[in-house]
Every structure is written in C-alpha cells, then in structure tokens.
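[Automated response] Your request has been received and processed.

Submitted sequence:
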Amino acid sequence: MLFIKVLCEIAPIMVVLYFLMIMPRVVHKPERLPHVGVRYAHRGLHDNSSDAPENTMAAFKKAVDAGYGIECDVQLTKDGVPVIFHDFTLARVARYAEGEIPEDAVKNKDGSFGVKGKVIDYTYEELQRFHILDSVEKIPKFEDFLALVDGKVPLIVELKIEFKNCTVCSKADALLSSYKGVYCIESFNPLGVLWYRRHRPQIMRGQLSDEFHKESPSEFNSFLYFALTNLFLNFLTRPDFISYNHKYPGNLSLWLCRHLYKNVTAAWTIKSEEELARAEQNFDIYIFDSFVPKNGPKVNKV
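Generated structure:
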C-alpha cells in the first residue's frame, strides 16, 4: 500500500517534468512561414551516379534552377574554413585523382578507394586535391554556396558537430549574419542548437532526431540517444522546430511538440512520392532525395 501511495504522489510530478523537458520555444518565435510547406532538396538536387553528386555546387545549382529549397551540411576544415560535406569521414564520397591512390586509401564496400581521414584532418587547400565520387566536383566552401544561392530559395543549414567543439556555429554564423536570404539552422548535437539559443535567438533553430534505437540498436544504445529520441533536452535548447526521421511520426514527444506546443516539424529524408504523401499528413517541412516531387517545389515567396 505504501508503494502505491508513493507512486501516486510521484507520478503527477514525473508527468509535469516530462512536459517541461520536451517543451520547445513557445514565445518570441521567429517567422516560420517562409519554411512551412517547403520541399527541400537533401544535399542539393543530387544524383551520386551523375556529375552532380551530393553537397556539390552542381547539385545546389540544379536545386536553385528548379526552385527547391536546399538542405546542406556544414563543418570545418583543419584551418577553420566552413565547408559543405555530410560525413565526418571522407572515404564514402571523396576520391583521389586518377593515378594518385596511396597504399593507405580506404577501400569501400563497392570496391572504390576513398580518402583516408576526416574533413578536420585537412586544410581547405588540401581537400581540393580530391573530387566527389565520379564527378569533377570538389568540396565547396560554405561562403561560395551562399553566393550561388543568393537568397533565391530558402535554406536548412545542418551544423555538423561531432563532440563538444561548437566553433562551426560561430564560423558559419559569421557568414550567415550578412546573408540576405531565408535560412534556418539545425543539428543533431544539442550543443549547436543551444549555441544559437544563446547567441542568435532571433534565428529559427531546429533539433534533429530519430528513433535511434530502432535504426541502429547496437550503435545508439546510450542514455544520451534515448534522451535525444524523446526530445528530453528541449528544455535546454528550446528549438523552433523538430526535424525527425519521417518513418516515426508517432513518437510521443514529437507528436506533443507539434500538436500541444504547436512546434513546426520537418520530415527527413523522404525518398518517394508515397513517403512524401504520408509525410504531408504528419509534418510541416519536407526534406527529400532520390526522386523529384511530381508537383514541384512549393517554395513560399521569400
């Protein structure tokens, strides 16, 4: 009986704490209309078997010409230059020039030889020795990307922060602060979202997340990923939107953020018309790749 009594006393407190932990920003929100309903080309309008692979200037130009918003990934080189590249490691998409493959090159599952190491291991000039997959494209500077887009379409800028070093936030923000187009930022790492809460509260910020335990149970089995899955760190970061794996619209914390707190939600990464149709029932922003939506970009005027 004592146990039941204690449980009844504690349960309401735990419920209140849960709602406080997942609460996003609810007051003084930035303008979100330019993003809602927009379809964003994931890493540009790319095809990794073409001359416009992911996160390249060619893929970004195709997205701009077609009128799609763009989602891209920003991280720093060894000499502190913000560049656009998704993985922390180079091997999957960065290639050596023909005839220059060293003995320690990384052999990928498809038999190709990728560049050893991480983006942060090379200066920007050193990275220019490599090309992206089978194209002539190079890893682009974030600055050059912004000049190409020039406000023509809205942007979602993902900040790549591997551990605790948030220098990429200030470096990217130095360029974005003078950019005239519409953009928002997001990151899987809550420290990046927290940086924007503290330093640039007027900028729309988003927390990236996933049902980590379902996607990679052996890799993402710590309490941190449990907390990220359930958005328990929202009380620190107060995101303006949640960007979540489109497969899991029923996640309770995500559902409550959208329906109770009226938080914007973004769906990643949609790979077919069928997935897009389902996402349109459960999310407000749509990040796609591997196909081109048949009904066009639906970009709001910016």
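Summary generated for your ticket: The two ends are 62 Å apart (CA to CA). The CA atoms of residues 147 and 163 lie 29 Å apart.
If you did not submit this request, please reply to this message.
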